[in-house]
Each structure stands twice: as C-alpha cells, then as structure tokens.
Amino acid sequence: MSKAVSANAGTVGRQAAVVAAASGLVLGMGLPAVADTTAGVSASTESGSAQTALAVTAAPTATVSFERPVVKTTAAPKPEPVRTQSTASAARDAGNAVTAAAGSTEAASEKLAETVSSAATSGIAAIAYTGIGHPYVWGGTSPNGWDCSGFTQWVYAQAGISIPRVNAWNAMKPTSTPQPGDLVMQNGGAHVGIYVGNGMMISALNPSQGTLLHAVAATGSSSFYTMN
Predict the structure, then answer these.
(1) Sheet of 210-215, strands arranged across
(2) Residues 205-227: pLDDT tens digits?
C-alpha cells in the first residue's frame, strides 16, 4: 500500500499520509504541503489536483497516541425518599383536626353565650335604676306601685327574661361573685332586690321609702343568684 501511495504522491498542496503500522492499522492525516525531499519521499501531481499523498513507513514498535480533553463529571444528587402515609394514619389525623375544630367552635359558642348573658345582666342593672323613686305597693307589679318581688320581676321582664314573682331565686344559680344585674335575696327570702355593683342594690324597700338605691349590708344577710 505504501509503494502505491508513493508512486502517486505530489509535491504541492495538502498531502494525505498513510501510516501502515505493524498491527495493520491504516491512519489518514493531513501534513504540510511541502515535503522534505531528504526524507526519501517522492510526490507527483495527479490530474492537476492540489492534493498530494505521502507514504510513511513506521517501525513495528511505533505507537500512536491522541490527546483527549479531560472531562469531569459530577454525580447527580440522590433523591430524598418519599414517605407515604397510611390511610389509617391520614384518617386519624383528619379526625383529630375535625375534633379540635369542633371543640374550638363549641368553646367560642359558650364564650359568646356568656358574653351575651353578661351584657343582658348589666342591662338589668341599668333598668333597675329607672325604677328608683317609684312607690311601694304590696302585691304590685308595675311602676305605678310594686313590692320587692314585683319590682324584680318587672326589671327582668324589661330585659326579656321571665322569672317567677315569688321565690325567683329558685330558678337561678347561687353565686359568690355577684355581678350587676344579679338577684339579691335577703333575710332568708323576706326581701329581694337587684345588685348593681360596689356593694349596692336597688329594691322596693317599704311604703315609706319606696324604691331606692341602698347598701346591701344595710338590709340584713344576703345571698346572690345569677342567670349566667
């Protein structure tokens, strides 16, 4: 093969080189256009082509190596394992969330009811003040004349709350921390009035004094009852 190439080699243009290695590998490569005549290489022009062929004979022990760019690789990040939640666990968590929400709603409803009740009780105290100066009449139930129980029944009725005319405290709850609007039962049930705070109460006391504001302690022993 090398002799055939030598016979057709040219002296100008780009040259094609064939390397016949001992292993039988045939390699083609581009060499400079001008050949060194001292290397024992002949070249000829073929059909006016600007290309020439150069035959090179290599020793059997010759090796050919090619430079390769160094390529660095980085391992892809390892994906985090995905934890799956069992159906039973998910159902339990959902149930707990619903229970908590229901508990929160119930607590909010109770608090709202207490707030409304407290506001109504405070309103009762304000209504009681409007009764001051009205006369005391045994068995009466109106501003034209009432007794102590008739007065308390009227006050609560103005707030939209119905209580018995006598022994109204039996429909309420006893309390040791009275708030304005709570009922004051005195002397074992002999007298009743409306607590308005700061140790004071309003009641229809007697025919000579009528309905007035007075100290709770001024009219005997007392027990307190609330609608809350």
Answers:
(1) 173-175, 222-226, 183-186, 191-197, 200-206, 210-215
(2) 999 999 999 999 999 999 999 98
Tokens of 228: 């809350």
Q: Is the pLDDT of residue 70 over 60?
A: yes
Question: What is the H or E stretch that residue 55 is in?
Answer: strand 52-57
Pairing of the two strands 173-175 and 26-31 = unpaired
Cα separations in angstroms, 120 against 115, 127, 148, 166, 203: 9, 10, 21, 21, 19
Q: Average pLDDT of the chain?
A: 73
- 101: confidence class by pLDDT, cuts 50, 70, 90: low
The alpha carbon of 173 is separated from its chain's Cα centroid by a whole number of angstroms, namely 41
Write down the pTM of the prediction. 0.49
Number of alpha carbons in the 13 Å side-chain half-sphere of residue 156: 25
76: Cα separation from own chain's centroid: 34
